[in-house]
Write a structure and sequence with these properties.
alpha+beta, 4-stranded antiparallel beta sheet
Length: 221
């Protein structure tokens, strides 16, 4: 029985084909990592922030619209001559508000798992020529961790002998982005004014220029 010798030309073609396939595969991986992945991450983060912030704002609106004493969380105490002595906050009411917003936002953020984000492949690989075209890449969102809340305060001049005082509520949360060949967690936050008042008279500088918001608001941990 005679054995046929391997065809050197065919063997050479096979080796070159394997090498070419390997080079192309590496090139595709590098292209995805350097071009598609950053573009996909950037677009996904914009979309996720939009949905998450909208949900957190709705949570704040839902809670504050049912809080009868939302405007009474700040009280201005005056001296006998009418001058401002102290801008006082109701720490119990504020902490109750903070807890309600945190719980409501935490529950509502679960809606993120039901939202489908689709990014056309053409939007990731071109400078506009194929934008919005091609097969869709699906992006999913998952809440990660607890919702955090904090308060901040602001004083600003509102005219002659008048000062505008605002209290803001900041809500932040971690959201995980789940996408093909990619995955990351981003912090999403929103800051909303929850109460505003005009104070007539001089406000003591020692209160306005406090170093710590927590000390100014005197919040209970």
């Amino acid at each position: 029985m005679r054995f046929r010798k391997p065809n050197k030309r065919a063997l050479r073609i096979l080796i070159l084909s394997i090498a070419a396939a390997g080079i192309i595969s590496v090139g595709v991986i590098l292209f995805i990592d350097s071009a598609i992945k950053p573009a996909m991450d950037a677009i996904a983060q914009v979309r996720v922030r939009y949905y998450a912030v909208d949900i957190m704002n709705n949570a704040i609106k839902q809670v504050t619209s049912t809080e009868d004493n939302i405007r009474s969380i700040v009280e201005v105490l005056t001296n006998a001559d009418g001058s401002v002595r102290l801008v006082q906050t109701d720490s119990v009411a504020m902490n109750r508000l903070s807890t309600l917003v945190s719980q409501t936002a935490q529950d509502m953020l679960q809606q993120l798992t039901d939202i489908d984000i689709s990014i056309p492949l053409g939007s990731l690989v071109s400078n506009g020529l194929f934008s919005g075209r091609g097969p869709d890449i699906k992006i999913n969102m998952v809440p990660a961790g607890a919702v955090n809340t904090s308060f901040s305060t602001e004083f600003e001049n509102a005219g002659i002998n008048q000062t505008r005082h605002r209290v803001y509520l900041e809500v932040s949360a971690q959201v995980r982005i789940v996408a093909p060949l990619s995955g990351s967690a981003i912090e999403v936050k929103t800051i909303v004014p929850i109460t505003e008042m005009i104070i007539v008279g001089d406000v003591p500088d020692t209160y306005i220029n406090v170093d710590s918001v927590d000390s100014a608001l005197d919040l209970v941990p």
